[in-house]
Design brief:
single chain, globular
Length: 243
């Protein structure tokens, strides 16, 4: 891979920024790998493995800060886990895959630009039926594309007012972990390809995730960097959609 050190630096930054808001960063990893012309067959399982390490680190930090809500997480996860496995069994054509990914990259852009300081005045009670519907839909898409689903779940939780910013980050982090594990299991069952540089990717993403989740749980303000990432992801999304 050309410019491998630039790739490593960007990988660290993506893991740092995503984990600071409770995300695993799969959409960011996928965007990087797409820009570096890595095939979807390698991209999806690689992103899911990176998600496992970063999201678990992020969850630990936010859970330790007492932000996690089991009553919100459980119905979402129970519905999403089997659907993420099903999604992981399905292969789609490379060009179509990249266009779907391009559209999905717009979601974290919206999350970073418009929900960074979203305030919840009053928490609403979560709906079991709606939780199952949301969880199963996001789970299937997560396994299909190779993401954990946190970029979709977190703005939904905030819009429904089921959780505040920190609670959303904690719930999303564990949601990403279980979906990534389930989706990866689906990929493993049909045979997958991993990059020979996987150990390096994991080490760098883990370091970035550890730093980001620690700073995020301590109310670290990284709006300038998040806005920069949002612009980069938007450009990557446009590139994937229209090329």
């Amino acid at each position: 891979m050309e410019n491998i050190y630039i790739f490593y630096i960007l990988l660290f930054i993506v893991a740092f920024l995503y984990s600071s808001v409770g995300h695993g960063g799969a959409s960011g990893y996928l965007a990087l790998m797409a820009i570096y012309a890595i095939s979807p067959e390698v991209m999806k399982p690689t992103a899911l493995v990176l998600n496992l390490f970063v999201s678990l680190t992020s969850f630990y930090q936010f859970y330790r800060g007492k932000h996690f809500k089991w009553n919100i997480f459980l119905p979402l996860a129970i519905a999403s886990i089997p659907m993420a496995f099903v999604g992981g069994l399905i292969s789609i054509e490379a060009d179509f895959y990249k266009k779907i990914l391009g559209f999905l990259l717009v979601i974290p852009v919206i999350r970073f630009l418009f929900f960074a300081n979203f305030q919840i005045e009053e928490i609403s009670k979560n709906s079991l039926l709606l939780s199952i519907l949301i969880g199963s839909s996001i789970g299937f898409l997560s396994g299909l594309i190779g993401i954990g689903g946190g970029i979709i779940l977190s703005p939904v939780l905030l819009l429904l007012k089921w959780s505040d910013q920190k609670q959303t980050a904690a719930i999303s982090a564990l949601f990403i972990f279980v979906n990534s594990f389930s989706g990866l299991s689906g990929h493993l069952s049909k045979g997958i390809q991993f990059s020979p540089d996987m150990i390096s990717y994991v080490a760098i993403a883990f370091a970035g995730g550890l730093c980001g989740s620690y700073m995020g749980s301590l109310k670290f303000n990284q709006n300038i960097l998040k806005n920069t990432l949002a612009i980069v992801l938007l450009l990557a999304g446009i590139k994937l959609i229209f090329t």
